[in-house]
Design brief:
It is built from 13 helices and 8 strands. By secondary structure, the chain is α/β, with parallel strands linked by helices. α4 links the parallel β4 and β5. α8 packs antiparallel against α9.
Length: 351
Amino acid sequence: MRFTHQTLPQRVVFAAGGSPAAVAAEVEALGGTKVMLIASDREKELADPIDKEIPVVLRHEEVVMHVPVEVAERARRAAADAGADILVSVGGGSTTGLAKAVAMTTGLPIVAVPTTYAGSEATDVWGLTEGETKTTGVDDRVLPASVVYDAALLTTLPGGMTVASGLNAMAHCVDAMWGPRADPIDRALAQEGIRALANGLPTVASDSTSVQGIEQTLYGAYLAAVAFASAGSGMHHKICHVLGGMFNLPHAQTHAVVLPYVLAFNIAHAPEAETRIAQAFSSGKASAGLATLREVLGAPRALRDYGMPEDGIAKALAPIIEAIPANNPTPVTHANLTLLLRAAWAGEPIS
């Protein structure tokens, strides 16, 4: 074995039903006295109990999908004007992403409280969108110092969003099998993440109030994000970032649609990933295991259902090919990528 693995420094707290006290303890441990609490108006009921336990100097509610640059700039100015010395984010990937955008220029520590399975809270990856272009990067400053996972906060997550967000987490696991820096530790974490997600998601999809199911899914989503942060962004995420920024597609649903197509595209040239993913699904084949789970969950199926135009396939080809890592298991050409995107757009099998 020859590889270099880096584990990111982060404190993780699982506290079902106890997020207000847990967040307060993390803020105090980090020396925070002036909190900028970032939570959209949709998350108000979840954020209010936390607000009461911490020294908030600013509630910031402007959260926009894909973190437009102008939205990030307004949040940065608001943090400076309020004299904030710590950030607390309560919400999904867009909320965490905005906190990261503020931290990237201010160096303020983040306590992240996820309300979806997005996984952004466990990575040092940031993303900003300008016009139709979404740019991502890696920066130590954006990694949340602490994460508080409270399963009770996800009991009201709508079923469709639960499925899409959970499959977004699954995509982190799959991409971690062959990302540009993937190593045996990443693959082991990703395999366990797939197992946990495959066990937890059907439970949560059938009973959104199941704390046990939510905790299992959160556990899987956390492992997925840790593996992905180490392995780096692979083919799946490069496709979804280009499409999401170019056509303003919903993040989780885009990932949920694209995932089986990338898995089918790469798996024949990734034997270790085939074995690990199939075992995690308790299936004979990786793609079959994912297909069975998607059928149980009633997963999103077609990009056209979420607003991607058909002529966007040709428009997206060049930027996607440019972004995909050179070590992708299956060589990418205009022809085979076109087939993949067209199938994902229509929700049909790859021919």
